[in-house]
Amino acid sequence: MANVKVNEEIMRELTQEDRMGLDAIYWHRCLNAPLLYQHFYVQADARMEYAQERIRQLVSKKVLAEVEYGGQYPALFLTTLGVAIVKLLRGALNGAVKNRRQMDRSSYELKMNPKTIPHQVALNTFVLSVCSKLNDGIEYQYYDEKFMPTAAESLMPDGMFEFRDYIVLLEMDMGTERAAHMERKWNNYRTFLEYKGPFYQNRDIIMLFILDNVKSLSRRKRTVWASLGRFLIDKIDGTFEVYVDAPAVLQNILTEKEAMKASSELLPGIGLKPLIATHGYSISPIRAEKIAPLGFDAYIRKLTPAGKVMTQDNRPQEFILDIWLDGRLSVLHKIMYYHNIERALKVKLGRSIAYLVVVPDERWINKTLALYDARGIQNVFFTTIVRLEGEKLNKALFQLDGLGTVHHFSNMGLKELVYERRIKGR
Questions:
Q1: Tens of pLDDT along 25-35?
Q2: How far is CA 64 from each of CA 25, 28, 68, 247, 321, rounded to the nearest angstrom?
Q3: Domains in the chain and their CATH numbers?
């Protein structure tokens, strides 16, 4: 970066909100007036007009540059002077606080083609919203792709959150990625997962595929899921997790994940533990602990008075359990590869155990499994909250055949099928 003399008067005139806003523009490459107001100037109990006036002052002093890109408000980038000011403001902080992001980006390097600005603004809107929802005590670092540690030679996500125990990679999708481009992306992820750089070693990885401003959310989600199913599902095993959804949904998933880490309760938040108890089953922390490395939510069983697993209708009454209400694709991986997982469980525990998955509803799971030709897998059972609340367990549990026919069971032997209905359409 060229040497730039920073006017002391400009530095003195910067408000605390100006300083925070300029710093954020540096790390996020560009912001606009609504984002600066919502996340920085509003802290001073100011109105939007005040934020816009401060922005005009910074533009007039050539600290910020406005770039039109078709949005209601222009994008705001740091000028060479603006970058110099940010680095001066950051100097004292960096000496006292460890910051793993690189500090050597120039205003030229932070610039972008106006055609890509809508994508960047959407990404930054998502990221700043997440940051505002995370509790103050949570340690994390956000990296725009310009500041990320190298993931792989050909892989560069749009952004990344680094938490203490795991890393979240962000992919912002606005409905423009074609099938061939997604295939290349998933192949790049495969290479990354097989040959992680040092920064990413021994950490769980979550990828959030953010669907923003798409014409049909459900259709786009199915398209992305189908592509992942063809090219990457074998790698989505829980140590690598994938979510595909709208920004608000993914923001909640990420912030709730951090909140749940502070809770020791099994299956928190959805009242499932007492619901399981009404059917005579209990969650075993000991068994859940043994199974946890394989990535299931819990292990449930019905016990005899002597504390042994009860046999009812010639079947041991025990299941490994996943709650699939958040759309995480590792559950789909476990369904599709359950025959392999079951063999591993048999080695680990000395017996086979059925897999029970709680899903939103019958139509949803039928559509999802139909995408991957994964209906009718043996020893995998489904249920819903509604069914658990209103039916005996043999009627609450169901399976789907290859034509989308729903069957429950005549008893808890789970062998004799009882026809319910056929779900039409995919």
A1: 999 999 999 99
A2: 9, 14, 13, 28, 53
A3: 1-96 (1.10.10.10), 112-262 (3.40.1350), 272-422 (3.40.1350)
